[in-house]
Known about the structure:
Layout: H1 2-5, H2 18-25, H3 29-39, E1 46-47, H4 52-60, E2 65-68, H5 76-83, E3 88-92, H6 98-107, E4 113-117, H7 132-138, E5 144-147, H8 154-161, E6 167-168
Amino acid sequence: RRARERPFxxxxxxxxxxxxxxxxxxxxxxxxxxxxxxxxxxxxxxxAPFDLDSLRLALDLEADGxxxxxPYLTHLPFLKEIAQCKKRIFVSVATCNQxxxxxxxxxxxxxxxxxxxxxxxxxxxxxxxxxxxxKALMRLDIPVGYADQGSxxxxxxxxxxxxxxxxxxxxxxxxHMRGLHHPHSLD
Length: 187
């Protein structure tokens, strides 16, 4: 609750607090249905749910995969629900420690899982992307990909050279569009 009530002054046209801004920018279920319809047969449609309602929406829309973002790696009841899905599960392992990782592995054992190495930061120089950690993840016998939030493709290309089977990058049609991620996305 406190995080949602924090001031967020970057986008005053959407609201004054973190909660107001995110609520204004949140896509409706109908918009997700349109995106799913458009993507079918063209590109994989993945959803990163943040609660049980959004997980149910992802399943209702027959999403091709579910992504688990770092803040949810320790939310065991939520992970157990995701483990019940018959979908590929992409797990962003940024910010997790060894114990968290072991817990996720046990919980998702036997599931179609891909670990996404990432450093939870907007823009990151290649030397700070910690790509060496991918090799440690690969020793777990789970497919490994790479995710980052910045507009520079260098780390993603290097990760692919190291064997990343999946790359996640934000993209935009125009860097100057209003919104949270446009200025930091690939075009």
